[in-house]
Amino acid sequence: MNSISETNSDIEQYLSGEIIDNAFKFDVSFLSSEKTPKSRIETILEVTKGAKVLHVGCADHIELIDKKMKNNNHLHKLLMENCSFCLGIDINKDAIEYLKDNYNIDNIMYADIFAPDFKRSAEVFSRQWDYAILGEMLEHTNNPVSFLEKIREIFKGSVANVLITVPNVYSPLHVRFYTKNKLELINSDHRFWFSPYTLAKVMHESGIKIERLIPADPPSVFSFLKIMKFGKRAEPNQKAHLSSTLIGIGKIA
């Protein structure tokens, strides 16, 4: 079940700050698997199949929409096909209009969830939602705890769970690029890297009850070898805890 308590029975005491240990050894073996982890999109679709989903940040960058639609990996389109009902929200008005005009997607809305009048949106708050998806957002915020506290305050009573995806600091692609080439391979808009423990800690501090941590997105062998310039026989470690993405699922209490 990818539960932290499987290998860390006293984790709540550490997450709450009841115990402080500057050499705490967080056991991530609960993430490990003999099988290569699934992609981020496959995992999200598996978790949310048949659910009622609120997809925050649904539109994607407008310049990437056509390519993702062509390759059938635009997450919101796939969620529409996978969930019992899915409503998308995005602050990018141009991308919202592009999806409506070019792909006939109408279960999306332009809105700022932090605007004072958002709570009056009947389209959102007249329903009960199983999940709110926050994909690739937390690493772009200036204060992840404050951001999730606001999410919890806004959606408490309407959304049961949040599903958060973030980059894994222990991805071999980034770690080896850093150690071998002395370069940090990163999106220049990122403020944070996350590990399994720090993602759990941030969620806990925001008042979200962490339920599961799931590894996703194994490193691409082709990209790994190309960037690292390793020999043909070299392969990245595909163990699940070394995945490129971490998915946190927690209850909005």
Give the helices and strands, then pairings.
Blueprint: H1 11-15, H2 40-48, E1 52-56, H3 62-70, H4 75-82, E2 85-90, H5 93-103, E3 108-110, H6 122-125, E4 129-135, H7 144-155, E5 159-167, H8 172-181, H9 196-205, E6 208-216, H10 221-228, E7 245-252
Please explain how this structure is put together.
The chain starts with 10 loop residues before the first helix and ends with a strand. The protein is of the alpha/beta class. 34% of the residues lie in helices and 19% in strands. The radius of gyration is 19 Å and the shape is globular. Helix 8 runs parallel beside helix 10. It is built from ten helices and seven strands. Residues 230-237 have low confidence and may be disordered. The protein has one domain (38-252): Rossmann fold (3-Layer(aba) Sandwich). Strands 3-2-1-4-5-7-6 form a seven-stranded mixed beta sheet, with helices on both faces.
